[in-house]
Amino acid sequence: MNQWNLDALYPSVDSEAFQHDFDDIDRQIAGLNELADSLEQDSPASTLRKVILALSDYQTLTRKIGAYLSLRQSANTTDQQIVSINSRFQNKISQSARATTRFSQWIARQDIEALIGMDPLLSQHAFWLRETQARAAHTLSDEVEEAIGKMELNASSAWSQLQEYMTSTVSVTLHGEPMTLSAIRNLAYSPEAQVRKDAYQAELKAYDQIKDAVAFALNSIKGEANTVSQLRHFDSVLDMTLFNSRMKRETLDAMMQAIEEALPKFHEYLRHKAKLLGYSNGLPFYELFAPMGKSSRTFTPQQAKDYLIRNFEPFSSEVSNLIQRAFDEEWIDFFPRKGKVGGAFCCNLPMLKQSRVLTNFDGSLSDVVTLAHELGHAYHGHRIEQHSPLNTRYTMPVAETASTFNETVIMNAAIRDAAEKEEKVMLIESSLQDITQVICDILSRFLFESEVVERRKEGFLFSQDLEQLMLQAQKKAYGDGLDPQALHPYMWVCKSHYYDAGLNFYNFPYAFGCLFAKGLYARYQKTGAAFVQQYDKLLEATTVSSVEEVAAMAGIDLTKPDFWRESLNIVKDMIDEFIALTSR
Fold first, then answer.
1. pLDDT at position 80, please?
2. How many C-beta atoms lie closer than 10 Å to residue 412's C-beta?
3. Contacts of 15 (CB under 8 A, 6+ apart)
């Protein structure tokens, strides 16, 4: 029960099923190339059908294999066999770049609006076809696309694996005992102040061993992102990210405006927490997750399961049933161990109508909330699994909607049912910890990455440069809420989000998800059960709509700061309640 079961994908890389599918990649790519060479030999409608069907089969196959290898490698980055096979897999799929580029260029030349009405299959893929046409303006020649695909194998992909390997295997020692980085970071939630401080110092010392290598990884990945965005005729990496996110710049600007307006309230919360803990110059970074209140509640995986199901059942039996499946069918890998990546994630497996969740569980309420978050991703995957393979991609901002909505449900339920004042304090403050992360910390990450991407155009950023940029970003985002002498200069080392060249600026989507979910939850509180059906349809639309179109289904205009302010006002009220409860 404590580790996930991947047999539904493949029993092993040595199994007949895996070997057959791995070899089948070459056959399917050959078929794609043959089709790409014969695009003008049939009617446009007939050819378009062939392209959709061929790409659907190919994506189903490669996503299944890619997910299996990625999950295996995440669970054990030291598995040399998996690392080697994954490298071969990446090399194989890079060979499809030429064909997919030709398909995009050919689709861009067609009268899509006329063709869509001629065939139900084409109508089903109307959004994908229109988006493919829009992407054509940023698609390069066959040769260049193929070169980029091959370059990434030994560039950003390899650098990403280096960061993952370094952070999952780095030597960390606390009080003479060896620990994993994930385990040491979990000690930030310890009820013992000295443990939190010692763990923080041990963590910083560990980063000192690997910071130079990881700095090379970050420089190389962001350098590649700058090059690719320029080649694709985007004004910046951020513009490329927004395009890929199906999100308008006006939406980002409106959200950021509302966040910056609300920062003083978050700083007030942090100063108040610092005062409660006996600090006079703001909160030290290592105290951000210091627990408040008097709850000693811990959870086993079974208790976490029961807690989640009990609290989600009143909202939606479909959500609670999916949580039941995730535990019963062994979708979850729970505990930290050497070689396993840190943090938590969810991998949707629409070809199986399942998901897999990785977490580094230590039994705290925070970890239960993390489980709720990742199982929200799994529910999102459940809502879109009826779509065709080409219609199952949702973008970064809406990717955090269901997950953060789940967080809100579980925390609000726990706060509502708290029997004692001290337990209520603990729950509210725990929620504020998480929200502060996705507002203040995410803002610091956004500011940091913006600066790195810009300065990378002019030269190399050594570790000391990156440390200074991170400290500057933290000071701006956290203001006088944190002690300026006790910040965290290495937050760029451990956050894997910086090291995926295909997902630059994977930071603001967390703020988006938090605030969008808060606003949606407020509507649920007003309309009750009737909202759930609207919520499900909204999630289903995330793969075939822009961010703004998805929000419009709930009557929300994301391009104006008003909605974002309303969501932040909910958090402000929570901060006021926490300060009032702890000031008596």
1. 93
2. 17
3. none
Reduce the DSSP state of residue 571 to 3 states and report it.
helix
Q: What H or E segment, with its residue span, contains residue 332? A: strand 332-333
The helix/strand/coil state of 117 is coil
pLDDT tens digits, 461-470 = 999 999 999 9
Counting every residue written for the chain, the total comes to 584
- pTM, two decimals, is 0.84
pLDDT-based confidence at residue 180 (cuts at 50, 70, 90): confident
Of 503, 545, 513, give the one whose Cα is nearest residue 244. 503
Helix (H) or strand (E) holding 345: strand 345-349
Task: For residue 174, give the H/E element and its range.
Answer: strand 172-174
Nearest to 440 by CA among 508, 386, 517: 508
List pLDDT tens digits, range 249-284.
Answer: 999 999 999 999 999 999 999 999 999 999 999 999
Helix H or strand E segment including 319? helix 317-328
Rounded to 10 degrees, the C-alpha dihedral 399/285/292/261 comes to -60
Q: Are 238 and 505 in contact (CB under 8 A)?
A: yes
Residue 482 main-chain phi, psi, to 5 deg = -110, 150
At a CB cut-off of 8 Å and minimum separation 6, what does 40 contact? none
480-502 core/surface letters (b: 16 or more CB in 10 A; e: else): bbbbeebbbbbbbbbbbbbbebe
Q: Does 544 score more than 70 pLDDT?
A: yes
Packed helices 442-456 and 237-244: angle between N→C axes, nearest 10 degrees:
130
Rounded Cα–Cα distance for residues 310 and 348 (Å): 24
Give the span between the Cα atoms of 504 and 497, in whole angstroms: 8
